[in-house]
Structures are given as structure tokens and as C-alpha cells.
């Protein structure tokens, strides 16, 4: 039963990547409202799922690698910090490249190699997201549904932003790369079980990228933000998660 359900969820993720440009209601709705709502959901996901999952991977490091609890904790959060710094450095290089291109009168674009590095970084995140549909630390249908909802909303906002910033590159190549990655992640999860320590290393590193993307893409700029949609998104996600805990 789990495979067909998660396959359908993966198909929804792929559809979001491929057809985000056809979701006209995203352009009709005031962007600052749904972006603020999405930011609230994303913050709820980071604090109520992502960070607790890091703690679970810390225990796996301690048990399977024979590390002390303190050393395992330091390793997990150092990997997350390294991931955040790496993704930040990439974003900074992209912004600087685009600024140089505009200064030279070549338009809002960046070097071809950065386009592939940028797409590859999102593909790595998507590979893990697809895999975790089948191999999350926390089981149960309520947890799976909340994970799916948070990731779908995350994809909608991030893809919408990527398409606005790099429309030609996204339409021509980017959307296909990240769509293939999330499908490949699900397929990998259906065929094999990666050792928990290996997933822990990858998850901790990419967690830093997820946190950065949440802050960069989903929390609106000060002039665009709306407090009540943001609080609604955070409160709704937290309430659903707590309800799921009680049901489980």
C-alpha cells in the first residue's frame, strides 16, 4: 500500500516541477500572502521535523560508529553547518555572476557552469526528499501526509522563484533535472535501503541547504511579508503535527 501512495506523491512532485508555469493562480493570488503562508509552513517543518530528525541521526552515529554522544552531536550539526555554508557560497556566486552580467549589458544571466552546479545542488536535495518518502525516521500515515504537504509547498515556492529568476534555463533544462532527481530518489528508496549512517551523513549535510532555502526563498522580504498568513502557516502545520502525534 505504501509504494502506490508514495509513487502518487512523487508524481505530484514531478508535476509541480514540470508545470509550475501553468499554475496561473500563483500569479493571481497576492504573492506576499501565499509566500508568507508557505514560509510559516516551512519554518514549522524545520523546527518540528528537520531538527528532531537530526537528533535521531545523531543517535545512529553514536550507536553505529561507536562515538560518544557529544562527538556524534558535534559531527551531525557540523555537517549541517557545512551544508548551509556550501549552499550559501553557491548562491553568492550565482548572484555575483548575474550582477557582473548585468553590468556588462548582457542581461540577467550567469555562467553555464554555475547553472549546472545550481541545478545539481537542488537535484541532490530532491534525491533525498524522494528517498525519504519511503525511509523517514518517523513512520505513520499522518507523518507522511505532513511531510508530503510541506515538501509540495516548498517545491511550489522554490520553483516559482527559480522560474522567475532563470526562466529560460529553468524551462529548458532545470525543471527536467530536478524532476528526474526526485523520481530517482523514490525509485532508489523502493529498490534498496541505504545504510542509516550513510543517510545520516547525507541528510545532515543537505539539512543545511534546506534551512538556507527556507530562509532565502520562503521567508519574504521585509516589504513583502504578511504576519497573519505566516502565523497561520506555522500554527496550522504545528497543530496538524501535534494532532498526528496524538492519533499515532
From TrEMBL:
Alphabetically ordered keywords of this record: Membrane, Transmembrane, Transmembrane helix
Keyword Nucleus: no
UniProt keyword annotation of tRNA processing present: no
Transmembrane segments: 6-22, 34-51, 71-90, 174-192, 198-215, 227-247
Name of the protein described by the UniProt record: ZIP family metal transporter
Species whose genome carries this gene: Croceicoccus marinus
Amino acid at each position: 500500500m505504501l509504494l502506490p501512495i508514495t509513487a502518487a506523491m512523487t508524481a505530484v512532485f514531478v508535476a509541480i516541477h514540470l508545470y509550475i508555469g501553468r499554475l496561473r493562480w500563483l500569479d493571481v493570488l497576492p504573492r506576499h500572502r501565499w509566500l508568507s503562508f508557505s514560509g510559516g509552513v516551512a519554518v514549522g517543518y524545520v523546527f518540528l521535523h528537520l531538527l528532531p530528525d537530526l537528533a535521531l541521526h545523531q543517535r545512529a552515529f553514536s550507536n553505529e560508529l561507536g562515538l560518544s554522544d557529544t562527538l556524534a552531536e558535534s559531527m551531525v550539526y557540523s555537517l549541517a553547518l557545512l551544508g548551509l555554508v556550501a549552499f550559501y557560497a553557491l548562491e553568492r556566486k550565482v548572484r555575483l555572476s548575474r550582477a557582473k552580467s548585468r553590468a556588462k549589458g548582457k542581461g540577467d544571466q550567469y555562467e553555464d557552469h554555475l547553472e549546472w552546479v545550481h541545478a545539481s545542488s537542488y537535484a541532490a536535495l530532491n534525491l533525498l526528499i524522494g528517498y525519504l518518502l519511503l525511509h523517514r525516521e518517523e513512520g505513520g500515515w499522518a507523518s507522511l501526509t505532513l511531510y508530503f504537504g510541506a515538501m509540495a509547498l516548498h517545491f511550489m515556492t522554490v520553483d516559482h522563484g527559480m522560474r522567475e529568476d532563470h526562466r529560460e534555463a529553468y524551462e529548458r533544462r532545470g525543471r527536467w533535472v530536478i524532476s528526474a532527481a526526485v523520481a530517482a530518489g523514490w525509485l532508489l528508496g523502493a529498490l534498496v535501503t541505504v545504510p542509516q549512517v550513510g543517510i545520516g551523513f547525507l541528510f545532515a549535510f543537505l539539512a543545511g541547504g534546506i534551512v538556507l532555502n527556507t530562509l532565502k526563498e520562503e521567508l519574504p522580504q521585509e516589504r513583502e511579508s504578511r504576519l497573519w498568513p505566516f502565523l497561520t502557516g506555522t500554527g496550522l502545520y504545528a497543530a496538524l503535527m501535534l494532532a498526528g502525534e496524538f492519533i499515532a
